[in-house]
Inverse folding.
């Protein structure tokens, strides 16, 4: 063992890495719990990669074979049902963990200088995660996913001049078809993973480089008392607690996949009428509902266009938030207000949609 | 609270949460199974009689119409027929009821003239009418019976294909019932005015009026339209065989047909009645009251053995079918994909339908053939359900084992975290 380490140390900067690990600490205060959300999201991403690769071995990305191949995975492949259910459940839990991570970072003001790039890479990773969800949802080629994708890809069509071109680009044609499926498959298993690799690498390097951010309230308290913020070693103290959370998540995934296996639904029929109750995945529900309840026209502009514009502006604003917030006590209060209103709006719209809002 | 103590509490809470989640999952699974059992029990409960079809109970009388207004949408008006064509020159007056049929026939029985409007139009309506009870009574001067305008209207005549026509398939029964459902009109002729009410409770009315199946029989399908007359005993089986082809084939070649003819029984109607034809029940076939067969057959009669065989066959298939279905439902409720089982169950259902048809052979051979195929399909469904339940139990045992391993690892982690030296302040 020692000889192997020595051999590697001659070729790799193992000692430097070891020294970095030994010296790495994590601040310990009343908000430390939220530090685990990033790791939790990373854990679910790891599960997605592992199960996704296994699904790739049997999945066939064509309109004629996709549904049957997923059915084959669920019924014939040993433990195929478990892998597919874990992949679906883990995807949803990952999105949930990512959203909680986003809001915790937002409320704790961890995006402040010098962590602007960490924030931007994180936001882009969240959008990519939602892209994974949107493209992956169609892959089983079932009725619900087919019609939800038709509705989802229809939305950019309201954008003037370039709307139709975007819809055609997304669908690989004027309608959702087999071409859309293969396109989504390519995006899901190649384009998005490649982008994730780069951004996630950057995000993790930046997190390691800057260390965990200490919330302004904790910093102020430390300044008042003159005592430094306590910390714990990353290894083993923080890492073991992280592992503890991951194991709880694994138990949860196993339970959900065994007792509530992800449904396959009915095979998509391109010529059938859209069934009632078409809805996207839960994390798109608030957007879906906001677009649905938008009036036909607002100040003479098409309502759908206004909603798309507002959502796009909101997305851009939140990406560049570190540059908009001058980091004063007043600006922090304003950000908290905005974040609270945004969170309440998302929850309210989601609940409204779940209750069959304005059908 | 020290950090060490805080982490102990956190670790204990996480363990508690994990255990609670697992317990909740197991409880939810058990509840789902119990619910599935209860639902399956409900499914096994004796079927209640089907609700009567929703048809208008009161037959509306033909509303008085303004002849001029009604004629604007009349098919004759669109074909260039004028008032004078029927009423003659001068002020139009009423046409005697005894003249109406022959007046209509002056055009409608003329193939050369009618061909100018539609190449394949019928021209035998009047000759058929003359053979009908209506036509024969009218010929005797009985003007209370129906003539052309009573069913087709006088001035608002529409094509039969038009759903607003009183003789469109969905309206025929109500049109007939204007007279045949009226006790005051029927009593002088010694006719039963309950026929419309009876028909409205039949499977045929349900198919036509509830499901909109215009191929389902209404009055004119069995009695004829222009040549309307009650079918005689000899022709009943022929009329039913128009739609129920396989049943009629089996019946015609059965010994039962000979027996019914000797006993002057009206073939199909003996068991199914005429207007109030309800959905057949497997329970009709038995030697004990109130089964239908028991009306004529007793234990010691020649056909008793066959009745017992058929009864046992139905019971066997139904028992196997219900058991397989209940187990497949349970497996599906628990999240298993049971497409193979469902496919076998569909085949068993198809064979059960064939079995019910095969009864009309009044012989064992065709019945046994379908019974064997149906039982084999139900057995395959049962095997698929058993395999699904076995797989389900395997998954649950696997989950329990995996949970135990994870719990053990979590406990080890908690102990390890507790034993870590307290972090030092910078």
């Amino acid at each position: 063992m020692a000889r192997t380490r020595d051999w590697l140390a001659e070729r790799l900067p193992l000692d430097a890495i070891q020294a970095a690990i030994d010296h790495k600490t994590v601040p310990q205060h009343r908000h430390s719990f939220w530090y685990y959300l990033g790791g939790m999201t990373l854990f679910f991403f790891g599960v997605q990669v592992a199960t996704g690769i296994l699904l790739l071995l049997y999945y066939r990305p064509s309109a004629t074979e996709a549904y049957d191949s997923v059915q084959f995975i669920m019924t014939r492949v040993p433990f195929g049902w478990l892998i597919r259910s874990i992949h679906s459940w883990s995807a949803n839990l990952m999105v949930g963990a990512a959203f909680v991570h986003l809001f915790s970072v937002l409320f704790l003001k961890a995006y402040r200088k010098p962590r602007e790039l960490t924030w931007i890479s994180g936001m882009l990773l969240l959008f990519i995660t939602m892209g994974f969800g949107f493209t992956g949802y169609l892959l089983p080629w079932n009725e619900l996913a087919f019609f939800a994708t038709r509705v989802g890809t229809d939305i950019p069509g309201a954008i003037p001049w370039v709307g139709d071109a975007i819809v055609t680009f997304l669908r690989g044609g004027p309608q959702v078809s087999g071409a859309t499926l293969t396109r989504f498959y390519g995006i899901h298993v190649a384009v998005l993973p490649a982008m994730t690799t780069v951004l996630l690498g950057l995000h993790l390097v930046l997190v390691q480089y800057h260390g965990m951010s200490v919330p302004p309230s904790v910093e102020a308290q430390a300044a008042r008392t003159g005592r430094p913020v306590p910390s714990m070693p990353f290894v083993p103290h923080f890492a073991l607690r992280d592992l503890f959370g991951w194991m709880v998540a694994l138990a949860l995934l196993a339970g959900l996949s065994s007792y509530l296996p992800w449904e396959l639904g009915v095979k998509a029929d391109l010529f059938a009428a859209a069934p009632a109750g078409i809805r996207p995945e839960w994390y798109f529900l608030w957007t879906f509902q906001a677009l649905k309840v938008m009036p036909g026209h607002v100040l003479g502009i098409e309502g759908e266009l206004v909603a798309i514009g507002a959502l796009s502006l909101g997305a851009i604003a939140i990406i560049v938030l570190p540059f908009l917030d001058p980091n004063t006590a007043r600006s922090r209060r304003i950000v908290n207000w905005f974040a609270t209103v945004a969170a309440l709006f998302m929850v309210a719209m989601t609940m409204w949609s779940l209750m069959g809002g304005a059908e | 609270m020290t950090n060490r103590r805080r982490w102990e509490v956190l670790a204990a809470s996480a363990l508690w949460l994990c255990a609670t989640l697992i317990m909740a999952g197991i409880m939810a699974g058990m509840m789902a199974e119990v619910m599935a059992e209860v639902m399956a029990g409900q499914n096994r409960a004796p079927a209640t009689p089907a609700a009567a079809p929703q048809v208008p109970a009161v037959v509306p009388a033909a509303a008085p119409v303004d002849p001029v207004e009604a004629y604007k949408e009349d098919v004759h008006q669109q074909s260039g027929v004028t008032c004078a064509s029927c009423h003659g020159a001068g002020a139009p007056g009423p046409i005697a009821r005894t003249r109406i049929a022959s007046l209509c026939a002056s055009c409608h029985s003329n193939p050369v003239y009618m061909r100018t409007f539609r190449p394949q139009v019928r021209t035998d309506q009047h000759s058929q009418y003359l053979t009908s009870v209506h036509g024969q009574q009218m010929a005797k001067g009985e003007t209370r019976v129906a003539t052309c305008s009573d069913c087709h209207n006088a001035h608002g005549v529409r094509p039969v294909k038009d759903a607003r026509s009183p003789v469109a398939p969905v309206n025929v029964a109500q049109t007939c019932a204007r007279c045949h459902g009226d006790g005051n009109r029927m009593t002088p002729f010694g006719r039963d005015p309950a026929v419309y009410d009876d028909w409205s409770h039949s499977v045929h009315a349900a198919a036509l009026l509830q499901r909109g199946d215009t191929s389902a029989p209404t009055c004119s399908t069995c009695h004829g339209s222009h040549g309307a007359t009650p079918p005689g005993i000899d022709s009943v089986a022929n009329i039913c065989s128009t739609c129920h082809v396989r049943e009629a084939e089996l019946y015609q070649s059965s010994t039962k047909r000979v027996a019914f003819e000797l006993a002057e029984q009206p073939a199909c109607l003996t068991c199914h009645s005429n207007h109030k034809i309800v959905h057949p029940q497997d329970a009709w076939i038995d030697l004990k009251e109130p089964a239908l067969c028991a009306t004529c057959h007793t234990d010691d009669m020649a056909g008793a053995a066959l009745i017992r065989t058929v009864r046992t066959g139905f019971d066997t298939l139904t028992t196997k079918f219900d058991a397989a279905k209940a187990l497949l439902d349970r497996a599906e409720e628990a999240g298993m994909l049971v497409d193979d089982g469902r496919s076998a169950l569909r085949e068993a259902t198809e064979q059960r339908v064939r079995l019910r048809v095969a009864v009309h052979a009044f012989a064992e051979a065709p019945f046994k053939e379908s019974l064997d195929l149906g039982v084999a399909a139900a057995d395959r469904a049962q095997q698929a359900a058993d395999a699904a339940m076995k797989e389900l139990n395997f998954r649950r045992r696997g989950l329990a084992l995996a949970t135990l391993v994870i719990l053990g690892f979590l406990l080890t982690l908690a102990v390890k975290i507790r034993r870590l030296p307290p972090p030092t302040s910078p």
